[in-house]
Design goal:
- By secondary structure, the protein is an alpha+beta fold.
- The protein has two domains: 1-150, no CATH class; 157-263.
- It contains three helices and 15 strands.
- The strands form four sheets. Strands 8, 9, 10, 11, 12, 13, 14 and 15 form an eight-stranded mixed β-sheet that branches.
- The protein is globular, with a radius of gyration of 20 Å.
């Protein structure tokens, strides 16, 4: 069973979402983590306790749920991730408008959580609300709803070799700009565009092929972005890493509806 990777945690003492890097740095310096022990929770539902396992000679450090049942029912960290085969089938069920609606729901949820990180554990969640990061399907006898979580990656973290060619919902707080490149076909010149992304934290850089679409992005404006995409192994060596948008079924072209962004509202 593959559950979501915890790259972040909710630190109850400061009522903030923090990166696992902060825990790693603390442990590397002091060889203990009592300052955090018993005070770290799921970054989504803020209710389920997490345990920290420091890195060893054979494994890197990680965070894990102490008890999956402590997660609230609509927390995506409670459930197994959907397989790559099924996420592709799932996304192929949507037309362009439906994909945009799905991304809008995800962006709304991310905005709600990031702007209210000071709330105490569990208050953010309402079990009657649908979580857009979950896929629900009836079991074979249609008596039970089976839930799976959509794979997610925050753009501020490093891309990992084990995730090559896997579809993710990429998201983050970012700065955007547009670059264009002149091309020629049959003696006629034309422009293609790239959306250039720099994350607010850690200054990670990415580029997204947008074809003839020129995004209306203001430089130095902070945005929230969500997109369905994947990356190839060769991009890992570059400082600016190209992420490919998902493709429509039986089409070689990226689905330009699989990306949306919105001005980040600071509160």
């Amino acid at each position: 069973m593959v559950h979501k990777v915890f790259e972040e945690f909710y630190f109850a003492t400061e009522e903030q979402i923090k990166d696992i890097k902060e825990l790693n740095d603390f442990y590397d310096k002091r060889k203990e983590y009592s300052h955090f022990d018993g005070k770290i929770f799921c970054p989504e539902c803020k209710k389920a306790r997490l345990k920290y396992v420091p890195k060893s000679h054979h494994k890197r450090s990680y965070l894990a749920s102490i008890d999956l049942h402590e997660h609230m029912d609509d927390c995506s960290y409670k459930y197994e991730q959907v397989s790559q085969k099924k996420i592709r089938l799932y996304l192929n069920e949507f037309n362009d408008f439906e994909i945009e609606d799905k991304l809008e729901s995800m962006l709304n949820k991310l905005n709600k959580e990031s702007s209210r990180t000071t709330l105490k554990a569990g208050i953010l969640f309402n079990n009657n609300e649908d979580n857009p990061f979950l896929i629900s399907k009836n079991s074979s006898n249609e008596q039970v709803k089976i839930k799976k979580s959509i794979p997610q990656r925050n753009l501020k973290f490093e891309l990992k070799e084990e995730d090559v060619d896997c579809i993710f919902l990429f998201y983050g707080d970012v700065y955007l700009s547009v670059e264009k490149e002149e091309k020629e076909r049959n003696g006629e010149k034309y422009w293609i565009h790239y959306l250039m992304i720099t994350t607010k934290e850690n200054r990670k850089k990415y580029k997204i092929y947008r074809g003839s679409k020129k995004d209306n992005a203001i430089e130095n404006q902070l945005y929230q972005i969500v997109l369905f995409g994947f990356f190839e192994k060769r991009v890992l060596q570059y400082q600016v890493k190209k992420i490919e948008l998902i493709k429509k079924e039986n089409s070689p072209h990226p689905n330009q509806s699989a990306l949306i962004f919105r001005e980040k509202i600071l509160v």
